Amino acid sequence: MDLISGFGQSINVAQEHAGLVVPITVFVAVLCLCLVVGHLLEESRWVNESITAILIGGISGICILVLSKGKSSHILRFNEELFFIYLLPPIIFNAGFQVKKKQFFQNFVTIVLFGVVGVFISTFIITAGSMWAFPKLGFLGLTVRDYLAVGTIFSSTDTVCTLQVLHQDETPVLYSLVFGEGVVNDATSVVLFNAIQKMDGTKPDMHRGLLVIGDFLYLFSTSTGLGVLVGLVTAYVLKALHFGRHSSIRELSIMVLMAYLSYALAELLELSGILTVFFCGILMSHYAWYNVTESSKITTRHVFAMMSFIAETFIFLYVGMDALDIEKWKMNKMSFQTSMGIYSLLVFLILIGRAAFVFPLSAASNLMNKQRTRPLTLKRQIIIWWAGLIRGAVSIALAFKQFTYSGVTWDPVYATMITNTIIVVLFTTLVFGFLTKPLVSYLIPHTVNERTNHQEPKSPKEDASLPLLSLQESIASNVELAKSSLAMFVERPAYTIHYYWRKFDNAYMRPIFGGPLSNRSEC
Amino acid sequence: MDLISGFGQSINVAQEHAGLVVPITVFVAVLCLCLVVGHLLEESRWVNESITAILIGGISGICILVLSKGKSSHILRFNEELFFIYLLPPIIFNAGFQVKKKQFFQNFVTIVLFGVVGVFISTFIITAGSMWAFPKLGFLGLTVRDYLAVGTIFSSTDTVCTLQVLHQDETPVLYSLVFGEGVVNDATSVVLFNAIQKMDGTKPDMHRGLLVIGDFLYLFSTSTGLGVLVGLVTAYVLKALHFGRHSSIRELSIMVLMAYLSYALAELLELSGILTVFFCGILMSHYAWYNVTESSKITTRHVFAMMSFIAETFIFLYVGMDALDIEKWKMNKMSFQTSMGIYSLLVFLILIGRAAFVFPLSAASNLMNKQRTRPLTLKRQIIIWWAGLIRGAVSIALAFKQFTYSGVTWDPVYATMITNTIIVVLFTTLVFGFLTKPLVSYLIPHTVNERTNHQEPKSPKEDASLPLLSLQESIASNVELAKSSLAMFVERPAYTIHYYWRKFDNAYMRPIFGGPLSNRSEC
Questions:
Q1: Contacts of B121 by beta carbon, 8 Å cutoff, 6+ apart
Q2: What's one GO-annotated cellular component (chains A, B) (predicted)?
Q3: What ipTM was reported for this prediction?
């Protein structure tokens, strides 16, 4: 049956597709409720949108459980592709579109350290820890590959919750680090997970490890390249054809469709759609956005944010609703003590797995960035550590991919791993998420002062003077050279590349792809 | 499998769901192409967006046919609900949201005459004509119910094409008539079609006819009521809770979700979702729109238009692609002559079926609106007649519902009816659509002059002075009373209701649901 047949079959939707209309109606209604409740709780110190959505999802789940007399707690049986084809792209694209590019690229080295090296370290620790402790707790039956999968599953962070607390204007460096890591981390986890799934059952060796890393580097570069390409094509088309001349609707549509096309193309070419759509978002806000009419500029900013917001709320709502799925609970054969032991172990491994890379890598980053006005203090390191403790939709998605076949599993061990994942996601989101606001306001209490004092390099003026500084400081930096050659090697190139890039951008890219020529245009 | 399982299953989309990623990529790419080509052809006198999309769809179909070595011409196999659950609601909601309400309600009686009475007349003529002529052409095998279905299938108009040519600011009365009729007509056709499907095979009698009309009136009023209710609730929530205070994203999301909720609720309650979402759109633009922040006002206007635009282009693209579906053509057993005879007959019946109500009802409308500054001249009647000749997605949807089971049919007679419908849709869209621009510019060449001369009652000032006029003219109208009591009965109430409604709106509705109190706010 094709589209047109679809037209016909669903006219009297209410009669024939009550099974679809009922859940859509309930879900949209509950989403509206989430928005209203989230708005009313905006001033609250303790909760945020994600927690609200999970709790409302849980309450809806209970209502449905009671109404269906214990048969089911979720009402929506989705197609498999829902999350990765429809919900994730708008979230990631919006992330790229709204990111403050200057901050992101100035901290690019640190972000990649956290997002790539960090995932490898965290995966190693969680894999080793669970391999050692699971059998001791009486939980047997997982292969080496399963343990490696567990490592990646619990290494993918969900920073949505934290980003609702941090503010881009108040703590720009911290925000860009947490945010940037979140995106790179997502991509790394998914790519690493896929590489592990491709392994055969044998024990991993050095050669295999290098292959995984090579595979990762290939995916990272090609995915980024594709995103950049699609972004540039969009900018060029909008600029060359003067789309806004006739209607701003058409230029809006082109931007939305090209953004989605970048993701679809990446998936088609077996690249990482997450990275592609993220870089496409960055390129679109850097060039294409300047080629549209004034009203389209306002509209794009808001419409991408709205789509991302609805997708996020939807995911949390569903996670809350799914937590009560009794089918999965029935299959869990373990005792209460064993279960609690495993949950505690996993949360503990997440805590130390993240600590094991945040603090050393922060120290390395401080070493490399000695001339930075504000180093990553211990307080800031704690926030970065805390910000990535929450596990979310990606973890659940990966767990289902590893331990079920089309969402169904008859293996009690695998079913237990699914419930473990859901419990860890709920626990980290609710408890860690709950404590984020108080923690952040305890550790950085004067965020507003910070903002007015301009202590962080956030104003465009500082950015504009950057090339000048880098010339004046060249003598001083020669003296420093002996002291920290590693830091120079990593840090100077970052600034120099940034400087030459801006020159190149102004001379060649901006005239072709659009946007103002001033240095101030970048943040 | 539920949502979460879906998360997991589709991570490596490219490997497991190449069957879905390929068509989505191709479709989005072709949609982008349509937008670019549509933009380049904007100045053209002959083509418009719909025709461009159909032609590009046809060309894509040929490419796919060649690439797949004659196996298939369409790449996307959709779920049944695609059209009625995802594509139609944004189109109709946007229609309601952007309509100029003053024009729409001042012409409400005429619109309902065309949209409701017209469909009944047209259905009767097409049913009778095909019942009489089909057997003479050698096309046998349809029951009475099938013939009635044929009547409604070919009575649903597609005014998208025409509305791209007419301009709301230049010819407001004509635009609101064509536009309003289009919406009411869609709803009427679907409701009438459903009523006919419920009939048993026996011959229709007077009693049954009255039942159908009663059913129709019930659906019309309840669907409208539901749309109004959801629109008012949205406006009240936005006003009472000051959503814009915290973020404009949340108020945007609420508007989009509530709009969709109105449609879903209507389908759930077995009402007409089309009517509900249309009136919800009107109410939202009348009240809710005034309760949001300035940037949300701009964003909503554009985002609803964009969603509608993409959905429309998508439908036309698909119709073009589906026209080459060789499966359906193979089953058509009729000779070329017979086929051509049937196509010509159907197009002829559409022409006279529409003429049979447009000209008499226009005359009736002129009679009722003697004091109207600008009556429906013959030229304008011809445009109205022409505007509704094009058949589109709704016709195809209804045909598939009647003549296939989940898009598949093994009955050669039914397969022939499907190809007949596709041919008529293509012919009317391409040929009639092609001639619309030249016809309109031939019949009303000085649309811009009209606009500057303010001959049509379009400025808010005229509207504001309306209650005054109705008092002064009361003596004159008493004289007229004897001459045309029918006209008075229909016309005066319309104006009086409009007047009292505005008083009521300013006194009670606006303060509760939002919006400026001035009389000028309505258009």
A1: B353, B356, B357
A2: plasma membrane
A3: 0.78
